[in-house]
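seq as requested:
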Amino acid sequence: MDTTEEERVPMGAAPHELSSKTFKRTPNGLVFSEDLKRVFSIMLISLDLKERPNTASKNLLLPTFQRNYPFSFGLKDAIAKMENLTLQVDMNTTKVWVSYSIQPELGRRMLRTFMDAKLLHIPADRTRCVLKDGVAIQPTPKGVAVLQRFVRHTGLKDIPAILKSDLNTMELFTFERSSMTDAIIHSDYFVSLLFSKLMGPMKNVWSPDNGPDEAPTLAKLLERSDDTFSFETANMCWSDPNTDDSGAAFNAHPDAQHIPNAHDEHRISPLAHRFFTNPDSTSHAQYYTSNSGLRLFTAKTFGEARVLYECTFSTKAVWQWLMDCTDIMYPKEAVTISSLFLRNGLIKPINLPPSGNHKHKFSIGLNCYFTLTQLGWESVQWRTEGGIKKFLVGSGLRKQSEGEPKSKEGQQTSTESAASTDTDRKPGYFADLTHVLRDPGMRYLFRRHLEKEFCPENLDVYIEIKKFLKRMTVLKNLLDTKTAREPDNVDVMTSKHFSDLVVNTINNALFRQANECLETAYEIYSSFITPGAPYQLNIDHSLRESITEVILFPQPCMFMSRIGENARTKKTMDLVDNGIDSTTPDEPLPQSGIRVNLSQHRDHQNGDNKISTQRSLSEDLEGKSFSSILKTLRLIYPLFERVADSMFLLMKIDSLPKFINSELYQEAAVMLNFEAKNA
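struct tokens:
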């Protein structure tokens, strides 16, 4: 059964907070990346991985000399656990239950997807790409980073042991995705920023004599676990519940101070290996930290004329870095992102032998060699130790080696100074907050600036609420569609075109959309609004109380007048469905234990997916339940809109001027000016 259930229950609340849904899928039928990461994280938490796995009793026939790998598990154990995945998170005023019931065949397919996504690997055979019964499976540094992001987002109080281990070394780059199609959202400037992150702070030429890549300290990773580019999900560090409402606490998880060697700067990843990190290696997972950048080849000669290229790399190496160091789940998606570097003129193919590039075709391969273009060299800024480079790589930025000529450094500084002077004579780039938030690249830099200012939650809740309002618009359109199809006479009622199937389809879509809206509302409340929330906002006290009253005690007759006074807003949304609402506006909502139970079944015969909805309550009760959901959403809509307007105004007045005057913004203007000239 391809079914998920997620329940957010405020203590003492009305009984309709159970949201049941299936995995969201892309137009191509792929499970959304966020759903995959959520299932993967809950699976690891449920498996309760230990540093010293107790496998002796389960594998009596295995030789005694077989090695036990830390935080490993078996394929059968994972499949069995996925049949009943459950997680409970207790907060001050809410409890969150997340549960999945995944049948063995689907569980096996999802585990293969986790393997393809580089979330898992076989430590005993680093080149194996296929899961197998009887061998130890271990999360990769990417998988650990995905788990840490989930733990932070849900506000889990107990840190899983694996997050305190040397497997936790990756600062994962997380993309922003469309909430409708799951497609990665990007712009040309964002591609340049990603390319700079890919190439690292300086040339990273691979050699078997190189030491292990420097891993961030656990203290830093627990403070900020990824290089986030996701604005539809809250993703900040844990904040101290004892702080005020300013939301400025940007501290590590409370347990971080009790972790031994949390500030050890010389940690070595178990995946560090002199040959498995070779760009030509067939190792399943090669990168265990993202800050060192793409591993390059030494100077290579190509063709009969022995043309020398000092900076070369293969498309397979680029693809590997994207799969190991970003949250991409599907290999084909990494191919698409890799091709953007070529399309944007940052890299160019080497068409001389032994390079195996094909004309007019971009392909991934060990012998498909590329090098940097002039625009690519300007984008990487390997000798720039401030501005964008500082924000992209953080403390992982390495010092320039003493052997590099200082004249080039001076020339670079002079060029930047001239460009800055030229930019000062031009109007400022993206001086309006709306324009900053509209461009993915500038939005990415703006969020990094907010992290430095300890207030990224202002942007995150703004985007979360915008997502909620968008879903509410879809719900209203569905209600309008249902109203428009209501029969006006007997002839229409008996028409085949207005069949019970059509009515049921529309009603099921309404229930699903209403549940998604309600689920999003509870997520926003538990993450940002409720006292003691992981990312508590600094908002007006009366506004917080009004939202709390709607969420915890959804009885319109108790607070309609109060909310009517506070809910003056530019937009209103009427969500009364005349076809379902069987109560008057002033009638209190039913207090009986009503839950909306939706289940979906898949029929895999002939490759078709047939979805059916089962209802456990009578039509009358379900009508009242749906009516109560609509009333709650109608009341919460203007309140959330006020929160979004408040956060936008705060960012516009306080954060945007600081961002425009920052070195980060000035360097972005220089890069945008250079790209415009070379377009």
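The longest helix spans residues 619-660.
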